[in-house]
């Protein structure tokens, strides 16, 4: 969502730049414009395959539940009747993760916010975004959906690597603890991971594989690894493509059982209007701001999707 903040200063977080008097001069007009731009993209996600669009949507960099409520009630999304799962995180900037879903496709059974306790590069405790874990049903099959926004690379990739590895370990531990009790459930992890599919956090800790032939029941399948291997990405990182936005899942989502949904394909969603058209960042995502100047963009990341299908 790229810094979806409301315009009100929250005294408990560092959100001052996203206020009318802050560096971004974040006015109600700009806020509503961003809401409508995001709504345009979300409305059309998935329509390459199905007219229904997206049934489950994980989001990150949102300030609070109010911005999600404004988003789902906006002119482009109101008729979809998206429901919201959200918890406040302890992140210093006040940004959280959340889940939007349509009850037609996903029945929520329970949810929880899982704390990610970190030690920063200087050995001090660091607050970051919680993991959102939602248990629900897709058709008659149980899914655990984990929504993430792992620690950034600010300060350097190697210097901050341990923090992302810790977030990965917590996800792996969550998945193992659940699947040991419910081996037939599917664990689906999504989010802005601030790591690529080839990084240690994904290949060694999550154990997310790109090759179906290598998969064991203990692994995750990462369909976006192949995209990354061919030079595709979701964001501009150090003037090159990075693929930090990923959806990975346990292999049982690949099983074509009668009457159940199963994995069909993945997609990096990018349309011309979502991209810069000229200059140094041509074809990269058209972000909301260029420095502190409002850029009339959408996000600094392209969204990613997977499709689950159930034959009639």
**Helical segment tally?**
5
Low-confidence stretches: none
How are helices and strands ordered from N to C? HEHEEEEEEEHEHEEHEEEEEEE
Q: Classify the secondary structure makeup into a structural class.
A: alpha+beta
Shape: globular
- How do the strands of the widest beta sheet line up side by side? 4-7-8-9-14
Strand portion: 25-35%
What is the domain tally? 1
Distance between the termini: 34 Å
User: What name does the CATH topology carry?
Assistant: Deoxyribonuclease I, Chain A
User: What is the mean predicted local confidence, pLDDT?
Assistant: 96
Walk me through what this model shows:
This protein is α+β, with helices and mostly antiparallel strands and 312 residues long. It has one domain: Endonuclease/exonuclease/phosphatase (Deoxyribonuclease I, Chain A, 4-Layer Sandwich). Strand 7 (131-138) and strand 8 (141-149) form a beta hairpin. It is built from 5 helices and 18 strands. The strands form 7 sheets. The protein has a 5-stranded mixed beta sheet, covered by helices on one side. A 3-stranded antiparallel beta sheet has the order 1-3-2, covered by helices on one side. Strands 5-6 form a two-stranded antiparallel ribbon. It has helices at 28-44, 65-72, 157-181, 200-206, 224-229; strands at residues 56-62, 83-86, 96-101, 107-114, 118-119, 125-126, 131-138, 141-149, 186-192, 208-209, 220-221, 235-237, 240-242, 245-249, 262-268, 289-290, 293-294, 304-309. The radius of gyration is 19 Å and the shape is globular. It is 20% helix and 27% strand. The model has no long low-confidence stretch (mean pLDDT 96).
């Amino acid at each position: 969502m790229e810094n979806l903040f409301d315009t009100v200063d929250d005294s408990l977080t560092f959100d001052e730049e996203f206020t009318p008097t802050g560096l971004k001069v974040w006015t109600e007009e700009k806020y509503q414009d961003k809401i409508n731009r995001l709504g345009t993209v979300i409305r059309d996600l998935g329509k390459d395959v199905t007219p229904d669009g997206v049934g489950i949507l994980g989001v990150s960099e949102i300030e609070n539940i109010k911005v999600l409520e404004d988003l789902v009630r906006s002119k482009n999304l109101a008729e979809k009747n998206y429901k919201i799962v959200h918890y406040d995180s302890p992140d210093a900037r006040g940004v959280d993760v959340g889940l939007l879903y349509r009850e037609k496709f996903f029945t929520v059974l329970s949810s929880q916010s899982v704390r990610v306790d970190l030690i920063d590069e200087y050995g001090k405790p660091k607050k970051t975004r919680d993991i959102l874990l939602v248990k629900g049903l897709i058709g008659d099959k149980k899914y655990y959906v984990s929504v993430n926004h792992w620690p950034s690379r600010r300060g350097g990739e190697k210097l901050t690597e341990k923090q992302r590895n810790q977030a990965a370990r917590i996800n792996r531990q969550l998945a193992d603890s659940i699947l040991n009790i419910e081996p037939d459930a599917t664990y689906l992890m999504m989010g802005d991971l601030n790591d690529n599919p080839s990084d240690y956090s994904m290949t060694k800790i999550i154990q997310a594989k790109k090759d179906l032939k290598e998969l064991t029941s203990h692994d995750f399948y990462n369909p976006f690894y192949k995209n990354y291997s061919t030079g595709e990405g979701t964001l501009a990182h150090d003037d090159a493509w990075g693929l930090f936005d990923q959806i990975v899942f346990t292999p049982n989502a690949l099983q074509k059982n009668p009457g159940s949904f199963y994995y069909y394909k993945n997609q990096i969603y990018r349309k011309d209007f979502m991209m810069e058209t000229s200059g140094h960042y041509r074809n990269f995502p058209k972000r909301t701001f260029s420095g502190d100047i409002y850029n009339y963009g959408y996000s600094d990341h392209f969204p990613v999707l997977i499709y689950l299908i159930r034959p009639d």
